[in-house]
Amino acid sequence: MMPETSRFIGILVLGSALAGSAALAAQSQPAAKPAQTKPATPAPAPPTGSASGSSSARPGVPPGTEAGITPPADYVIGADDQLKIVFWRDDSLSGDVVVRPDGKISLTLLNDIQAAGLTPNQLREALVAAAARYVTDPSVTVIVKLINSRKVYVTGQVNKPGPFLLNDNMTILQMLALAGGLQEWADADHILVMRTEGGQTKSYKFNYKDVRKGKNLQQNIMLKPGDTIVVP
Question: Could you tell me which of 232, 75, 209, 220 has the C-alpha nearest to residue 154?
């Protein structure tokens, strides 16, 4: 054999051996793990409402002030009602008050202010006028916290006579139900509702038996604060 041929064959054998070793080394290496992608952190949702989590603030009520209750459309302030008077940026004049039996409320510096018989907006205007002597351009909010003055009185032959708080849009029949219904010997045909309007007392007849049978339903009128139901 020629020397050049032997040398060429030796190179081929050496190359094959090296290739086999590289293949075995590659098989012995663990497979590379795919790179993990960290999930994107969602952007925080924009805040809703106030810092306290409430988004139901009433218009005209300063931020951070409790909203109180929504009074009926025909509401006027009366004795025993609980109010919150808020002077914007003036805590010394603000405070929780209860309307006294004489219809007035008392506040620091302002002393006695007539409240009974006024709407919350009318009372606000009266407070602005009174505070103008002490505060430049006063801003006042009147918040109704609790209504105790809207009462209807039920007397006579019912199971639970007495005063009852009047919710909005209550009829005679509904109020009699609150009073526990009629007693056995009540004169259900001649119930009266006594109402004072314009300084005069008026009476409205109510036949319980007819209304219960679906007759003359127009006599089942809506009650007003101060009404008295008399069951003979």
Answer: 232
Question: Strand locations in 48-198, DSSP E?
Answer: 82-87, 95-98, 104-107, 111-114, 140-146, 151-156, 162-165, 191-197
Query: How many CA atoms within 13 Å lie on the side-chain side of 80?
Result: 6
Segment 167-226, tens digit of pLDDT? 778 999 999 999 999 999 999 999 999 999 888 999 999 999 999 999 999 999 999 999
DSSP state of 219: G
Tokens of 43: 């952007």
Is 79 exposed, middle or buried, given 0-12, 13-18 or 19+ CB atoms closer than 10 A?
Answer: middle
Domain architecture of the chain: domains with CATH:
82-146 (3.30.1950.10), 151-231 (3.10.560.10)
Residue 203: its H or E element:
strand 200-206
The Cα–Cα gap between 11 and 125 comes to: 111
pLDDT tens digit string along 66-110?
568 999 888 999 999 999 999 998 888 899 999 999 999 999 889
Give CA–CA dist 172/230, Å, rounded: 11
Distance CA 144, CA 68 (A): 6
**pTM (predicted TM-score):** 0.64
Q: Tell me the Ramachandran region of residue 125: left when phi exceeds 0, alpha when psi lies from -120 to 50, beta otherwise.
A: alpha
